[in-house]
Amino acid sequence: MYNKSAVGRFVAGKSQGYQLLIYLSLMALLVFGASLFGVLTRPFGFMAAFWPANALLLGLMLRIPLLVHPMGWLVALLAYMAPDLMFGGQPLLAFSLAFTNLVFVAVGVLLYRRFGPDIPTLDTPASVLQLLVVCIVAAFCSTVSGLTLVRWCAPDWFASGVGHMAGFWFTSELVNGILILPLMLTRFERRADNAQPTERSDLLFHLLPAATLCVSVALAAIWNGPGSIGVPVPALLWCALQYSTRATVVLTALASLVMMSSISVTLQGLEQSDAHMDAIISIRLGIALVALGPLTVACVNGARNELLQRFEYLASHDHLTAVLDRGGFFARGQHLLENASSGSSSVAVMVLDIDHFKAVNDNHGHAVGDEVLRGFARVIGGTLRDGDVFGRTGGEEFAVIFEGINREIAMGLAQRMLAAVAELKTPVANDQTLQVTVSIGMAWHAQAPLNELDDLLAEADKALYRAKAAGRNRVEVAELSQAAAV
């Protein structure tokens, strides 16, 4: 006989092993590609102008904790070394540089774990402060490691002095971390449908901050003076207020990289000089600090918008069933009715009432009654289409409004509701289940009338009374709506 728990652990272990293999392969490709890009952009023989690999690997290990594994560190080390060795680098030097890169990643992982066990995200002002602390400490530790190992392996690289190289190394790690790591930590956000620009004028206004940023970055590149890195700041702050946190992170990274590249190209004539090293250190430090501003504003704005959405949801939804409450249903239903009237679209309104619901509360208690309401709302919601408006208008009374639906389809939906509710089973005492039924009154118009939603609900309510009088668990259609259908 098989030990089921042992078999389950074996299958789970095999599954986790395959998952780890897939993640390791993906990590190896990304780190190798990012390292190869860095190697190809090295202006001074060993230090890349832009080195995204460390922040990229740190973000992967934070988002996929399974990668924080001995095999993960080994694969990352080999992926770091491979591009150097491909271009004829010395194995010992390649190992020293790869080890130094892993120091940055390891310190970042340890610090974020100290902040909390959850996967970190960049969505609050505190998370921006955490990002800054992590990048500063990780950059410092990486710099110490690099100065120790690389100076021993390649002392001629420190001709400009240990102080200059330390500042160069530290600011390089810092700016790469601040620009790349947020790309890995921000969440994908789904904007509400009503937040999407629909008209051309709205679209142009929506794109205006990004266009202003492009102009600002171009002006900064043309000017190229000491204060040029501050030129795009107003546009970046506008983008942070207008767009999502992720969009702001992307725009900030792109703008910063363009500015850093354009200024570095201008300083190529000063290569290997102390003035060049000082300028590059100052530019990188300035760009890293400038990037924190829009990131913080975007997080504050995102947190505010999320809080407002939560308040709006609580103000318009029933806390028990999670469907629209009476006020929310009337507001959204009236808006749908006005759209249907302007578009000459058909409309149907249904009023649903759970049969003998008072007896449920009296015989089984209000806790069971609440569970019946939750289950009822769930099964009715499962029969509806996207865009239909569903709400709780009273104790056990609910209502639905449909736009662009013919009478036959509306009747079919109502019959599906009857069947779905009849199949709903609610647990009660002694392992028993309780089943309920629903009566439905419907008002349907081939063209949405111009009157208020209250009038349509009154029509449907009259049909509901007839459904109850005729024995319940049935659908009745308002007489006025039948005349309108002819």
TrEMBL record:
Q: Where is the GGDEF domain?
A: 345-480
From the UniProt record, which GO molecular function terms apply?
A: diguanylate cyclase activity
What keywords appear on the UniProt entry?
Membrane, Transmembrane, Transmembrane helix
Q: Does the record bear Ribosomal protein in its keywords? A: no
Gene3D superfamilies assigned: 3.30.70.270
**Do you know which PROSITE patterns this protein is assigned to?**
GGDEF
**Which regions span the lipid bilayer?**
20-40, 60-80, 92-111, 131-154, 166-184, 235-259, 279-300
- What is the protein named? GGDEF domain-containing protein
Q: What is the native source organism of this protein?
A: marine sediment metagenome
